[in-house]
Amino acid sequence: MRLILPVIVFLLLLGCSGSPSPVLPPAELTPLDNKLTISRQWVFTVGEGVSDFYLKLKPVVEKNTGYAVDYKGHIFSFDIKTGSELWSSKLEMPVSGGLTLAGGKLFFGNSKGEVVAFDTKEQKIVWRSQLSSEVVSSPTAASEQIVVKTVDGRTYALNINTGKQAWVYQHTVPRLTLRGNSSAVIKNDIVISASDNGKLTALTLARGKVLWETTIAVAKGRNELERVIDLDVEPVIIGDVIYVAGYQGRLAAVRIDSGEIIWKRDFSSYSGLYVDSTSVYITDAMGQIWALNRYNGSTLWRQDKLLRRRLTTPQKQNNYLIVADYDGYLHWVNKEDGKLVARKKINTYEYDVDEGEEISRELELLFSKQNNVLIQPIVINNLVLSLDRSGHLEAFQLEKK
User: Fold this and answer.
1) Nearest to 108, CA basis, from 70, 139, 86
2) Any residues with CB less than 8 A from the CB of 139 and at least 6 apart, and which?
3) Which of 56, 73, 211, 314 is close enough to 281 for a disulfide, judged by CB 3.0 to 4.6 Å?
């Protein structure tokens, strides 16, 4: 039997398993004199968001149109400039995998193990393909195929027009894993798939033939919790180098043609990484933001004032990095030195607490889910879009003071 744990539950268990010390609270935010002017432009509601589910349903954007979906299968189209709704469609299905947009169609997966193709012009499903298990990652489109991963360790290639299966590749899956799968990435007709067993695999897009397989992380520890080494961070390809990281494992740079590891260092991340021409930017499992030299992995700077705030994947905007946290805050960081330069909260909530609920209220404040931002901020020029767990999508304009 395979066990899948949401990240927050996993971290709480891990914190209690090896030490009698209590779980430490998220770092409190200290006053910050914003160096940037950040103004809210519009607010849009994406149905019911993801509710209590740990799902990363990231909106997608094409030109001035955005598309988003909630966990019940309610699809929305909205105007990027104004935040006004263009149309919506209720599909009534348990969506679990994020959106991909290609050729006028939205592709996504659901918890029933289906991949669905939805025509944005006709506003209807054009095909659905049944796979072996739940899809919690976003499909990847390339050429005439859609590549998608399922939680049971399979990678599928489907015809983009019909959904017919072209090939399937399977790897072994550990008994205990985090809830999540990284999406496959494709370059030069090579499919790169990172797995829960700590391995990175290159497959041919045409037939799914294995070109090479490289071990990024090796399980260590006294129990199953300590031996989790999921590669849930989506690999990033720059030139002929793949950058990949995992939980309780390693961060590594790998040659795409051979699978040879160029450099590696011990690292633990379940969020994600951003890579530019000189640096790798990554948030670790403790909530630290790192900038590393992308050619050798050496540390350029480290920001540790957001510890345990469950940060998202960094996103670049001009000369800054943006991360969001568990409490609905967006943080702007100078990418040259790692200093915090601005902060903005995307939403606020009010609570009514009945008598006798003080303890649960304290836990809710400490590890609140209402304001959680699970997905990487979306940057469109000077506009930043951020979506929280409850479906509040907000756009902010960035200007220098």
Assistant:
1) 139
2) 97, 100, 107, 108, 109, 115, 146, 147, 148, 183
3) 314
Model confidence band, residue 267 (pLDDT cutoffs 50, 70, 90): confident
Q: List pLDDT tens digits, range 29-82.
A: 999 999 999 999 999 999 999 998 889 999 999 999 999 999 999 999 999 999
pTM for this entry = 0.86
3-class state of residue 371 by DSSP: coil
Segment 280-298 mean pLDDT: 95
- 281 phi/psi in degrees, rounded to 5: -115, 130
Tokens at residue 331, please? 């943080």
Residue appearing with tokens 């030490």: 19
- Taking only the tens place, the pLDDT of each residue in 226-262 is 445 566 788 999 999 999 988 777 889 999 999 999 9
DSSP assignments along 322-338, one per residue: EEE-TTSEEEEEETTT-
As a whole number of angstroms, the distance between CA 325 and CA 384 comes to: 15
As to burial, measured by CB atoms within 10 angstroms (0-12 exposed, 13-18 middle, 19+ buried), residue 271 is buried
Distance CA 401, CA 393 (A): 25
Taking the CA atoms of 111, 117, 119 and 122 in sequence, report the sign of the dihedral they define.
negative
Residue 375 has, within 13 A of its CA and on its CB side, a CA count of 28
CB 392 within 8 Å of CB 59: no
Q: What token pair was written down for 357?
A: 């609920």
Asked if 54 and 373 count as a contact pair (C-beta separation under 8 A), the reply is: no
Buried b (16+ CB within 10 A) or exposed e, 87-104: eebebebebbbbbbbbee
d(CA 277, CA 279): 6
